[in-house]
Amino acid sequence: DKLKHVIRPQIIYSYIPDYSQNDYPYFDKVDRIERENLLTYALTNTLISKSRPKSSEASGATPSEMFLPTDYLYNEFLRFYVEQSYDIYKANHNDPEPFTPIYGEIQYEPFRYLTLQADAKYSHYDSDFRTRNVGSLIADDRGDKLFVEYRYERDFAESVYTNLLVSITRNLRAYTDYERNLYDDQRIASGFGIKYISQCWSVDVRYIDELDDRRYVLLLNLFGIGGFGSGTPSREFEDIFGGRNSMLSSPYQIISVQ
């Protein structure tokens, strides 16, 4: 078969007890762990194509050798994911809306250098979308990447986000990003930076310009340990597609302060 369809159902239970955290320091909301009692059910559909490298025929291999499993290339070119959670804590306290919005995500790679993705959250209580995003990523063999995404969050924002990465050398990368609000035609944020990547560490220097804040950021990351730095950005640099289950890597590696 040249095409394989994989279906993966999941049931996940997540529980975090409610306990006092007053003895721990508080700098921002990340320093607090919220209670949780969720039952999540999800379904993943994946299409995988199988093909032989063109070089097999040109290499002079025999017909039997050309059809060995090691000669095949496998490409996960389409993925559809959907999930919803049931909040047991809310249900036990007579909350009329214990179900979370339905989250769906689809990713399609029509060919090697182009990836398309869309994700959305739909509330069956409101019969309306809470969020919806559509994006595309173009890349090349050198590692250069261009990402463009339309973003919508109900009653909050509608914007266009762009991100460009240029690989100057094998270890040195330059990047810039820009986001504009379509409601009032105003810039939300922009920035640029340079990142150097070594075998076991990396350093990232950025300039971030937001509506009410401008700052320079210096971050050092030790692979497998974590990152630290000064001037931590107030607006988190999210996954390039913003999807929790995205298969795609960011155009540049994000350093999170831990």
Notes on the structure:
This is LPS-assembly protein LptD. It holds the Pfam family LptD. This protein is 5% helix and 55% strand. The chain has 258 residues and is mainly beta. Strands 1-2-3-4-5-6-7-8-9-10-11-12-13 form a 13-stranded antiparallel β-sheet. β10 (186-197) and β11 (201-210) form a beta hairpin. It is globular, with a radius of gyration of 22 Å. The model is unreliable at 232-258 (pLDDT under 50).
Concise synopsis of the structure shown:
Helices cover 5% and strands 55% of the residues. Strands 1-2-3-4-5-6-7-8-9-10-11-12-13 form a 13-stranded antiparallel beta sheet.
Count of beta strands: 13
Put simply, the count of helices is 3
| Order of helical and strand elements | EEHHEHEEEEEEEEEE
Strand order of the largest sheet: 1-2-3-4-5-6-7-8-9-10-11-12-13
Strand content: over 45%
Domain unit count: 2
Terminus-to-terminus distance: 46 Å
Query: Segments where pLDDT lies below 50 for 5+ residues?
Result: 232-258
Largest sheet: 13 strands, antiparallel
- Kindly report the average pLDDT value: 81
Structural class by secondary-structure content: mainly beta
Helix content: under 10%
C-alpha Rg (nearest Å): 22 Å
Shape: globular
Pfam family, one: LptD
InterPro entries: LptD (IPR050218), LptD_C (IPR007543)
Domain LptD C-terminal: 3-163
Protein name: LPS-assembly protein LptD
Name a few traits of the molecule.
258 residues, 13-stranded antiparallel sheet, LptD, single chain, 3 helices, LPS-assembly protein LptD, LptD_C, 2 domains, 5% helix, mainly beta, disordered C terminus
